[in-house]
Queue: 3 jobs
Job 1
Amino acid sequence: MMSSKLVRDKIPEITAAQGKAYRFNIASKDEMLDLLIHKLQEETSEFIEDNNAEELADILEVVLSMASEIGIDESELFEIMKKKRERNGGFSKGIVMEFTP
């Protein structure tokens, strides 16, 4: 059974230069958001394990690609984030809401 995953744009050239032979195809527009969702899950799991900036950058790259897929450019996404932060705050204070039954 063949498995597949979304990879960064330069991976075909990088793997070829390393002498590794993989098959690649281009995802259809209909597949792309689902592939990005799976990639986000993968990158989030890697960040949870490693807690490093590289994995965090991968998460941001995937999120920006997801935004593009739904028609939102990077500056618009950051503007939405800024407005939401102004309205509701961020997460810097570490406030935890407790729920009681």
Job 2
Amino acid sequence: MKVTFLGTGTSRGIPVIGCGCRVCRSTNPKNQRLRSSLLLESQVTVVIDTSVDFRLQMLRHDVHRLDAVIFTHAHADHVLGLDDVFPLSVRSGRAIPAYASPETLDQLRITFRYLFSENRYPGIAEVDLRAINGPFAIGDLRFEPIEVFHGDMPVLGFRIGDLAYVTDVNRIPDSSMQKLEGLKYLILDGLRYRPHVSHFSLEQAAATALRLQPEKTYLIHMSHDVDHEEGNQLLPPSVSLSYDGLVLEL
């Protein structure tokens, strides 16, 4: 399985509109972050979260095929690219399956009412909503949903074999921590240096990683408070900041 980090930034992206901070002005490409999303390529091609930057991400990585999308939760930066699956749906000749918790599906039906109404406008994306109620498979990939919390909001992380993807989290129940043991790669939310009400700070993310002890942890969803090189210097050797375009092979 090939794993590509399509975006590693927080909801505003980096650079942030109108911001002149040194990270937003940085010429280091690893400080330039699209909204967080992950591409999985095996016998099938799957995207976790259709970010606001989905169209650009698909073009940047030359994606011509999409077998399914999976949603962690319904916040704007994770879902608003859904309409841009249209050309990939047309190319495949079928609706794109979209997997999410029942609660997230309800929000998608509201946000994208025009996609799911009985009187659909012609020439729009074809999406087949599918509820996640337990482990599921897409082609040769098996996904185990893992409930975590983003403030008071339930969010789904996913374990795919030896890799897990956990975004937008500030609390992981013990029952979910058990499902994250024995990983090769953990991809984990790490927003900024300071604590946040609904995201792990870098320190909290690193502490979680050290408790779980995967071979390697990559942090995602970083804000413009975090410079790539400086942030990495503060982390233990087994934990690193990710960056857009990073590729893992499993």
Job 3
Amino acid sequence: MAAGDSSQRSGDRRSTGACAVSGALGPGYRPRRRDTRLQSGPVALCACQSVRHPGCPCARPAALVTPAEPISNSAIRTETMKPRFYITTAISYPNGAPHIGHAYELMATDTIARFMRLDGYDVRFLTGTDEHGIKMLQTARGKGLTARELADRNTPLFEAMAKTLNASNDDFIRTTEARHHAASQAIWKRMADNGDIYKGSYSGWYSVRDEAYYAESETEIREDGKRYGPQGTPVEWVEEESYFFRLSAYEDRLLALYEANPDFIGPTERRNEVVSFVKGGLKDLSVSRTTFDWGIPVPGDPAHVMYVWVDALTNYITALGYPDTENPLWNYWPAIHIIGKDIVRFHTVYWPAFLMSAGVELPRRVFAHGFLFNRGEKMSKSVGNVIDPESIVAHYGLDPVRYFFLREVPFGQDGNYSHDAIVQRINADLANDLGNLAQRSLSMIAKNLGGVVPQPGPFRSEDETILAAADAMLEQCRAAFERQHIHIALNAIWSVVADANRYFAGQEPWALRKSDPERMGTVLYVTAEVIRQIAILVQPVMPDSAAKLLDLLAQDAADREFSALAKRLSEGTQLPAPSGVFPRYVEDEAKGEAR
């Protein structure tokens, strides 16, 4: 290619490195032959949410359900009609202050939401608080408060945490809101009208902390003489009149769902646990309580309040206007739920059964992350190792904290964190690898080229290689985010960061200033282009820091979405004076240690 022909180098993406429109249709959404979302208008669905098919074990007549709008490749890059994407965190119990476990889930979910927005989706992102149940009531009594007073005192702490973490949620729901009472009573009535709720009496083991019922076989008596459930929480014997949900009637339908939709639950080990649990046999579920009144009254029987999980799970559709399915927000359903692995059963057994009964389309996917351990120890107030999100962000900085947890801990698995590990990531990955590369290359453009992006000369094989590696990042990230594997996306990006550092060091542009200024300009152009692509792709994880990098590259707002990766950095662009983006963490300057 002639040196003067720069149209392919600095305007449009070279054909050898171009990224085709992804075939991935969003995290957890992979069209299958029987997927009703690929059809138009209402269709007849069996209870396992597949189109009627031979051999379906579902005994109940099919419901008429309007499927979600299809997400097609042709729609992904249009400005007039963006595909919709709905994602939720679990809602948190505000019986205490938020801790780093709450923050971890919120940061991860926010990252996925931001990724999808940048990739051309119309995103709806929900978080909130679960304010009913005996756990809230008992905690409040211990503090001399009413449950409502406790909720009103603590929920603002969770809202403040979302702001501290720069979460981009579109809504924050409280289950004490009037809209949620209406939605919960509506879904109860739908389940009752379907013949799935009846009155009886319950006796069995119940965990207040888990807000869960357990079979005796799931409990054990420990050395202290107390009985504990499978999550290691104390259980107590409960006997009371109760309404029941006919969960046993949904055993075959749930198994059919898991079989027909293997991606409904992630990661795989969580799916296997759920399938094993359901195959072990389902018993009807107690769904009301009479021994306390802090909850949503059962329609027509105010002596009963709803089991907190009927109430809590419904929040995901409350926020979209349920039961008003004509509400424009309803078009965002179905959702991807990001939850902790300790509440998988509620979201993948109870919730889909409730929705099947109520005739509501099922979520697209439920993905469960693991637990965080502080230097190998589970967080505990008695041990004194519970970390306040506000303090850790104040100590290390928000974007470094977001980056650390989402890079260090494979999403879906348990992970450890410590002061030393955080500092290592800050100084090695951010300050040394990405920050130093940007500072050195942009400073050379400022010093030697008047701060103007140079016109590159002919590309050599080493230039083509690093550009091809950068060009491949978008598809690698899409594939990772489709599975909620945020850590894998970051690994792919930092692999290119390492390649770019080797490229820059190997080309020695500082030595070319006098001997071959055109070649120096080419090396600096290629390096700046790779940094631009990296900065665009790390925006979901580190929005503020990425924005600073893109400011240094003089990128307009319209050039920060993933669609901008289809073109190259424009030569002749005047850049601002370079400045550092990722400062090193220096122990001597640290004010204490956030452990």
